[in-house]
Amino acid sequence: xxxxxxxxxxxxxxxxxxxxxxxxxxxxxxxxxxxxxxxxxxxxxxxxxxxxxxxxxxxxxxxxxxxxxxxxxxxxxxxxxxxxxxxxxxxxxxxxxxxxxxxxxxxxxxxxxxxxxxxxxxxxxxxxxxxxxxxxxxxxxxxxxxxxxxxxxxxxxxxxxxxxxxxxxxxxxxxxxxxxxxxxxxxxxxxxxxxxxxxxxxxxxxxxxxxxxxxxxxxxxxxxxxxxxxxxxxxxxxxxxxxxxxxxxxxxxxxxxxxxxxxxxxxxxxxxxxxxxxxxxxxxxxxxxxxxxxxxxxxxxxxxxxxxxxxxxxxxxxxxxxxxxxxxxxxxxxxxxxxxxxxxxxxxxxxxxxxxxxxxxxxxxxxxxxxxxxxxxxxxxxxxxxxxxxxx
Length: 392
What we know:
- This protein has 392 residues and is an alpha/beta fold.
- The protein has helices at 3-30, 91-94, 104-115, 133-146, 159-168, 182-190, 210-223, 232-243, 254-274, 293-296, 314-335, 342-345, 361-375, and strands at residues 46-49, 63-66, 83-89, 121-125, 152-156, 245-247, 277-281, 310-312, 338-340.
- The strands form three sheets. Strands 4-3-5-7-9 form a five-stranded parallel sheet, with helices on both faces. Strands 1-2 form a two-stranded antiparallel sheet.
- It is globular, with a radius of gyration of 23 Å.
């Protein structure tokens, strides 16, 4: 074969490759990434988790994790009149290792329906592990305008802001949302699916392609905890904490608490703009000064910095979490927003938690009881047939 023929063949191969990539890019843009909507979870996602027996106190059997067509863990939106509550938060709202029917947002829906006299109630769950208040601001900004009317937004937040501050160390950035590229950098961590045009203009051009987006999403999903269907990650994290040095003093939390307060106020603004009523809930945790060695052996979290050699001691974790909860209470008082003080109402033991702050089956029921008591008075009275007031 002559050099000229070889060159022609190479050119054809390169051309075919480019055409193939071009067609793939076009197909992805028209299908998977063609929607102008935002989804916390991929629509239609179904997972079944099977936690190892005895690994999580109070968790029994397999757990179905089902996402509807709007990217929400919950029932589909109905066309008939509903009182709609959107539950927003991190893993304590997500309730990953609890079955769809055992997670507290579903139990809350069932409980509130039992308390109504003719009014239908829907509770949707957009909780997702690892999301902090900066992510929740974006969720409210983009989700509320695209959903049918939401009557109330229930925020169970705080612990991920604390953990983000602890593990970030000197790299913690309290102005992530304020920076020019901040929102574009946070969107991929906040949503599983989002419009292709939402890109960080400061990153290389190839990261703006649909092919790169797909590869990045697959990579992020492989790191998601639902891939660990047995929960083995908890045993590894417990062992890391047991072997690490325990540090009595936390880092300076002031900048993180200031950011947290600003983000809470942004949430208030976003919900008021949408016409929804906002309700905050303080973050309950297992951490307390007199925690027994048996319960301390269940703990996984509190890492300081980027390695597993240093963790914050339990009394310091408890005191730090209280500062974030007090920030919620203070912001709520200042702006007239209702705060359900779950942290003060729930016992700090294994009747509620299987680790530092994740709810087990009985814990989800206790959360539901506390929330129902406060939210039930917000429900409307009987709805006359055909009356669609407030439903769009």
